[in-house]
Write a structure and sequence with these properties.
With about 140 residues, the protein is of the alpha+beta class. The protein has 4 helices and 7 strands.
Amino acid sequence: MALTLADPMVREFLSHGTRTGKLAFTATDGRPVINPVWFILEGDDLIFNTGRNTAKGRAILRDPRLALCVDLEEPPFGYLQVQGAASISEDPEDLLRTATAIAARYMGPARAEEFGTRNAVPGELVVRLRPTKLLGGFDMTA
């Protein structure tokens, strides 16, 4: 059975706790690169922020095809690989909203505004990864 974001188990796995996404993209010379990202699931998109002039930002602006892997690093071990295409926003209100929501997930509600404001500055991007394919499983020990 194909995995989809409509599956409550998929949504729970992607939204649970502070699992970090491992974002895969292609460098200008064709090398595969993987960087960690904090993200949230919003509707059918995985959302993260990054700087326009970072390796991630430049790569996404050049080629929006991405893969993001989220894993469970303890038994029963599991992972989801999300493949898709990204869209970009530089809207200041959208940036502040998403940066604050991401900060709430990873830093907690008490520090969400602090980190959201710190990360919602000119030159930052809102990246929405819309899945086209999901791979993985929830129990690699079975």
